[in-house]
Amino acid sequence: MSSVPMHAQIREIIRRRVLDGSYAPHSQMPSESQMMAGFGVSRITIRQALGDLQKEGLIFKVPGKGSFVAKPKAFQNLSRLQGFGEAMSPAGYETFSQVLATRELPADEQVARRLQLKPGALVVQIQRLRYLNREPISVDVSWFPLAIGRRLVTEDLPARDIFVILENDHGLHLTHADVQIEAISADEGLARHLALPEGAPLLRIERLTFADERPVDYEHLYYRGDAFQYRLRIDRS
């Protein structure tokens, strides 16, 4: 017998079915009576499980009709410095990347200032389309100092997080990042990659990541506003 309460076990089973697509977005969930019979539990246990999932935004209720599957909105906690795959995999999401482009180019004034380089110094730019459960979720444009970037482009970028590669393969000690977030509208290129109409809302994240006190990764991340959110806990001291 598991020490985990029954409603929590059922909640996790239903969550997995939502996240892996067994319960499709906007489809109607089985009725409470059907779940009671299927799981062999009481109505209150089913309602506890569904209530938890509703609070998470994975399902929604329509009075008189029952529960329906929401399009899950993934989230990443800003209190930890993590790569996209690092944050999503423990929650049961499938992630991978499509490399759109890699190139060496002179750093413009903004990139040079962020990476503490001279304007015009060569940097490596990597553009990736990130997928969550096989749907496009973000376009990531990243700039790296030349030596780091040249090594990165030889790595398995579709399957591995850049943060993991920098730490495990390159021996860098990532310590912190400066992050700015703003709302923008998708231009034609971003809309095409993210399968959205032009002008759809996006979250634009500007992130500068440091190894100790040295900037090593400057990024512009463009996330679908309808499918992703950042969360942050703020304590009042």
Strand content: 35-45%
The total strand number stands at: 10
Characterize the biggest β-sheet: 6 strands, antiparallel
| SSE string | HHHEEEHEHEEHHEHEEE
Q: Count of DSSP helices? A: 8
- How far apart the termini lie comes to 42 Å
Please tell me how large the radius of gyration is: 21 Å
Instruction: Describe the strand arrangement of the main beta sheet, using strand numbers.
Output: 4-5-6-9-8-7
The secondary-structure class comes to: alpha+beta
- Residue runs with pLDDT of under 50 for 5 or more positions: none
Proportion of helical residues = 25-40%
What best-fitting shape do the alpha-carbon axes yield?
Answer: elongated
Summed over residues and divided by their number, the pLDDT gives a mean of 89
